């Protein structure tokens, strides 16, 4: 059986659960367009990227971007040197798995400190990036104000540190992808006549205590959300299609019209999704999220609760 490409890391806010919703939001004639370009300015874990490139083979060019240099470096390494990366990850896995919990923790802290030196080559950096993601608490990626990874050790019986088949499948798909590291607006010059943008920015927090968007040292605050909305207006004005996902602050506070006002000229849909990032499992649950598009969507229903 052919192994499908999928995210090679766990990523907070990953969009696997929203694929069904995004599928019915995508322009109906997308699979008929020639020389189609797909642009994802906040690629994150890449769930939509890997799905859409396999679903729509007529996408001849894709561009991904993220502000997190370790993440984009990992994408480039998997694209260019999958075999070397797999060998290094296998060595780390073989060294780590036989250890008891105390020694695993020491091993983890040693590798985290090495990763934070920011002095590694691409293979070393990406192998530790994946190792830390697979063995840290809750599979989080979080950095402090200095840009240093600070997630504590996680307790997993048998973490899959080297997912060889996924890396190979992802590498094949990434051959048609250009990888950028920078601001989301830097992606606009890469758009062609037929282009679909998918925006998945750090979500606006539903409360002061629910905030989690520390993927990089730069904060994505309300000012950035407004700048992104202005960019979407520019994308629309230039004739490109776009889909954007974000938190539904109105679901938390019916009087909060932040996104409804920002995107009042576009189509706003609310879909069910599960939030799993909370130290208290009782507070994890089903909420609505937003899908916003400049395309008319004739049929759109809530996704079944997960």
General description of the model:
The protein has 306 residues and is an alpha/beta fold. The protein has two domains: 16-67 and 182-293, 3-Layer(aba) Sandwich (Rossmann fold); 75-162, Adenine-specific Methyltransferase, domain 2. The chain contains ten helices and seven strands. The protein has helices spanning 19-25, 47-55, 69-80, 82-96, 101-115, 122-135, 164-173, 222-237, 249-252, 258-262; strands at 36-40, 59-66, 177-181, 194-199, 241-247, 267-275, 285-293. It has a seven-stranded mixed sheet, sandwiched between helices.
The CATH homologous superfamily name of the largest domain equals: Vaccinia Virus protein VP39
Compute the separation of the termini in Å: 27 Å
Q: Which strand-content bin applies to the residues?
A: 15-25%
What is the CATH class of the largest domain? Alpha Beta
How many individual domains? Answer: 2
Over all CA atoms, what is the radius of gyration?
A: 19 Å
**Strand order in space, largest sheet:** 3-2-1-4-5-7-6
Helix tally equals 10
Helix-strand pattern, N to C? HEHEHHHHHEEHEHHEE
- Enumerate the spans where pLDDT stays under 50 for 5 or more consecutive residues: 277-284, 301-306
Please name the CATH architecture of the largest domain.
Answer: 3-Layer(aba) Sandwich
Output the structural class. alpha/beta
Helix content: 25-40%
Q: Can you summarize the main beta sheet? A: 7 strands, mixed
E-strand count: 7
CATH topology of the largest domain: Rossmann fold
